[in-house]
């Protein structure tokens, strides 16, 4: 696995929790960015995705808004 994965999330978002759990089950390492406490990261997320909603998952340069399991599997080649 040589793809870089970032998740812009909040601690209380159920879809964020599901996405992180899914990646952990698939043994995919990722960087978690808590946009509830990091305003610069929240702005970066909106700039990149055009969305205020979380999670926003970046796999390399591909942006997936929400917990779209099929899209994640396809992008990671799982």
Mean pLDDT: 95
CATH class: Alpha Beta
Count of the separate structural domains? 1
User: Helix amount, in percent?
Assistant: 25-40%
Which descriptor suits the 3D outline? Answer: globular
H/I helix tally: 3
Topology as a string of helices (H) and strands (E): EHEHEEH
What is the tally of beta strands? 4
Structural class: alpha+beta
Structural account:
The chain is an alpha+beta fold and 78 residues long. The chain has one domain (5-76): Glutaredoxin (3-Layer(aba) Sandwich). Helix content is 40%, strand content 22%. It is built from 3 helices and 4 strands. The chain has a 4-stranded mixed β-sheet, with helices on both faces. The model has no long low-confidence stretch (mean pLDDT 95).
Outline of the structure:
The protein is an alpha+beta fold.
Question: Strands, helices and their partners?
Answer:
Layout: E1 5-9, H1 14-25, E2 31-34, H2 39-49, E3 56-59, E4 62-65, H3 69-76
Parallel strand pairs: 1-2
Antiparallel strand pairs: 1-3, 3-4
Describe the structure using short key phrases.
78 residues, alpha+beta, Glutaredoxin, 4-stranded mixed sheet, 3 helices, 4 strands, 40% helix
